[in-house]
DNA sequence: CTGGTACTTGCGTGTTTGCGCAAGAAGTGA
DNA sequence: TCACTTCTTGCGCAAACACGCAAGTACCAG
């Protein structure tokens, strides 16, 4: 039996932001891609099959939810998963949806 | 290191539906409430502070994502969590957002 | 300084979402 | 059947979202 204590409304809004970040197939594809290691924006755009500006917006959602972090190398910006727990959460969601 | 195999697009859409179910503060409040045990729609509406039709729609989202199940007793319909993993996923999300 | 690459931001558009309200099931009891 | 309770569904509207495209910012090489 898992202990769940009640959250405040503002806390739930922050948690919901994480849920929203996980609510789009393209963003989930980004997480799968980043599971193998960091990637640049244009690489991710190619892999997910969308335009670079669109990818940048999706990455902004993931970033503001705290799921990914960035590192600049010259012109490129490399994104990586912020935490191993992001993959754990995604795996759990996949097992629930199975 | 967590192993993540790539999903198909249709699979990711199903996973994203779970993410969407977790993307609203009221629905998260429902999950917290159901952690203590099953509740009727009107009870949940009172607890979450919204109208019954609105609650019914939120519950439909959770239900179609497979996060909750129902049981009818007379006029009332009792909702409960479909799986312990739903709480585990929520706990993970909370720890990530902390 | 100039040109080129990589990314972000702003804007317009069509779609989806959350909500209140009214109307429709579904069940209970008299 | 009738009245009542409980939940779901349909409708309309405002807000949020995903997307393409154009413009802006940041960095590097020459």
Largest interface: A-B, 45 and 45 residues
Counting copies of identical and different chains, the oligomeric state is: homodimer
Name the CATH homologous superfamily of chain A.
Answer: Winged helix-like DNA-binding domain superfamily/Winged helix DNA-binding domain
Helix content of chain A: 55-70%
Number of domains of chain A: 1
Mean pLDDT of chain A: 96
User: How would you spell out the order of helices and strands of chain A?
Assistant: HHEHHEEH
Quick one: CATH class of chain A? Mainly Alpha
Shape of chain A: globular
Major sheet attributes of chain A: 3 strands, antiparallel
Radius of gyration of chain A using CA atoms only: 15 Å
The CATH topology of chain A is Arc Repressor Mutant, subunit A
CATH architecture descriptor name of chain A: Orthogonal Bundle
Quote the distance from N terminus to C terminus of chain A. 22 Å
Beta-strand portion of chain A reads: 5-15%
Structural class of chain A: alpha+beta
The count of DSSP E runs of length 2 or more, i.e. the number of strands of chain A, is 3
